[in-house]
């Protein structure tokens, strides 16, 4: 199903609806359709990566994420929420183990980071409403291929702690009524190895542009001293960067987008030249089976374990109205909305390898599409009402599901029951 256009084309003077108007409408629909195609592909990429992780990951909970049911009978629920104005809705599964790893799971990472991105948006809007300003502080260190990820993480943590516990930082924090949200980003290059750096969104209630140069000098001095405690160093030219105002907001937004694992068109894999994010390393490991990429990914899993994605200064969340929710709690949330179906354990076993296809069918076609998808594969499912003798209802010409209606309409209930019995006999024998 093609979603309606998100943008309308306006002309300077109204005229008759001729070929130009039709072309503009078609172009708008194509644009909207391409957007949802990219969203669907992004979903496929993430679900595929999580399945492939079962054979790669060194973390036991990641092995179970999105695969193992939390219900005693092994059943899994499917949920659906219609979209606004006829657009595709949202769909997802409930009753599954979730790892809640923002660093090591493609699916949980996207879900958690999407929530964190909204939290930051709420913070920035709250600060703007009170007449405040923001600055984005980026801190990094010198490194080379011989530094392990754990070594860099220890140095990063020590230097940040030294900075924020220093008298200079506390004085500036008090004088400017400064708050912050701190994030960590990691990349890797074949030439220089792992690279960790900090992004900190600094929040001020007033315009402090005149104070930024002095604050920058103070921060760099404390940062460099903290790194020296772990035998690391930084330069004033490359070790610190401060951007004020809209530039800070824009750069922080791009940072969160990368964390959210939602790159343009769902393409999260890049070439091996230059810098790669951990999830890009994972993509290469999956696609090529390269042992070095697998080892790099496992090093990232172990080295990032327990590291927080975002850290807020004390009391900031409460002041701006952001609810405190743990990563694990966000990951455990199902899609909500209405119950589209309950999949028995044996049905889920068959569905799991292509689970994203069921989600995509459901969010584009709703509950009828979900039922049609399961029916076409002879998979049993349950609803609030008995659906054994049900005929699937779809609008005429509703591609890509119209063929299902024709196929199912030609099948009587006895044929359907026989097909399901045959499937379960085969599944039991496996």
Please, could you describe this protein's structure?
Helix 3 packs antiparallel against helix 7 and helix 8 runs antiparallel to helix 9. The strands form two sheets. The protein has a five-stranded antiparallel beta sheet with strand order 6-3-5-4-7, with helices on both faces. A three-stranded antiparallel beta sheet has the order 2-1-8. The protein is an alpha+beta fold. Helices cover 49% and strands 13% of the residues.
Please give a handful of descriptors for the protein shown:
single chain; 430 residues; alpha+beta; 5-stranded antiparallel β-sheet; 3-stranded antiparallel β-sheet; 15 helices; 49% helix; globular; disordered N terminus
How many E-type strands? 8
Output mean pLDDT.
81
Rg measurement, Å: 26 Å
Share in β-strands: 5-15%
Low-confidence sequence ranges: 1-28, 261-267, 385-397
Broad shape: globular
Strand order of the largest sheet: 6-3-5-4-7
User: What is the H/E string?
Assistant: HHEEHEHHEEHEHHHEHHEHHHH
Describe the main β-sheet briefly: 5 strands, antiparallel
Number of helices: 15
Helical residue percent band: 40-55%
Distance between the termini: 36 Å
Helix- and strand-based class?
A: alpha+beta
């Amino acid at each position: 199903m093609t979603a309606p256009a998100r943008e309308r084309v306006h002309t300077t003077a109204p005229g008759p609806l001729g070929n130009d108007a039709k072309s503009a409408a078609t172009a708008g629909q194509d644009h909207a359709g391409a957007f949802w195609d990219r969203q669907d592909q992004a979903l496929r990429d993430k679900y595929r990566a999580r399945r492939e992780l079962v054979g790669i990951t060194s973390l036991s909970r990641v092995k179970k994420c999105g695969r193992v049911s939390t219900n005693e009978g092994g059943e899994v629920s499917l949920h659906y929420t219609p979209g606004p104005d006829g657009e595709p809705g949202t769909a997802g599964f409930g009753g599954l183990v979730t790892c809640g790893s923002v660093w090591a799971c493609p699916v949980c990472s996207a879900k958690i980071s999407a929530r964190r991105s909204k939290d930051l948006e709420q913070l920035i809007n709250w600060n703007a409403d009170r007449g405040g300003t923001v600055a984005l502080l980026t801190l990094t260190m010198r490194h080379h291929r011989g530094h392990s990820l754990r070594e860099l993480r220890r140095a990063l943590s020590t230097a940040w702690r030294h900075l924020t516990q220093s008298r200079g930082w506390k004085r500036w924090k008090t004088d400017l009524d400064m708050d912050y949200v701190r994030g960590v980003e990691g990349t890797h290059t074949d030439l220089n190895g792992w690279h960790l750096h900090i992004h900190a969104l600094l929040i001020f209630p007033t315009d402090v542009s005149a104070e930024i140069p002095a604050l920058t000098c103070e921060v760099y001095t404390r940062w460099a001293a903290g790194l020296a405690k772990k035998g690391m160093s930084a330069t004033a030219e490359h070790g610190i960067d401060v951007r004020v105002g809209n530039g800070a907001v824009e750069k922080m937004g791009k940072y969160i987008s990368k964390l959210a694992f939602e790159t343009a068109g769902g393409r999260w894999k890049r070439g091996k030249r230059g810098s790669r994010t951990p999830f890009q390393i994972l993509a290469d490991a999956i696609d090529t089976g390269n042992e070095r990429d697998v080892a790099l990914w496992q090093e990232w899993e172990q080295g990032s374990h327990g590291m927080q994605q975002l850290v807020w200064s004390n009391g900031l969340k409460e002041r701006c109205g952001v609810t405190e929710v743990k990563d694990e709690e966000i990951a455990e949330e199902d899609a909500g909305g209405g119950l589209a179906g309950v999949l028995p354990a044996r049905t889920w076993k068959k569905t799991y390898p292509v689970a994203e296809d069921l989600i995509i069918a459901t969010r584009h076609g709703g509950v009828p599409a979900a039922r049609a998808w399961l029916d076409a594969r002879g998979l049993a499912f349950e609803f609030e009402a008995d659906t054994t003798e049900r005929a699937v209802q779809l609008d005429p010409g509703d591609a890509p599901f119209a063929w299902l209606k024709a196929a199912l309409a030609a099948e009587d209930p006895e044929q359907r029951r026989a097909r399901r019995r045959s499937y379960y006999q085969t599944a039991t024998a496996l």
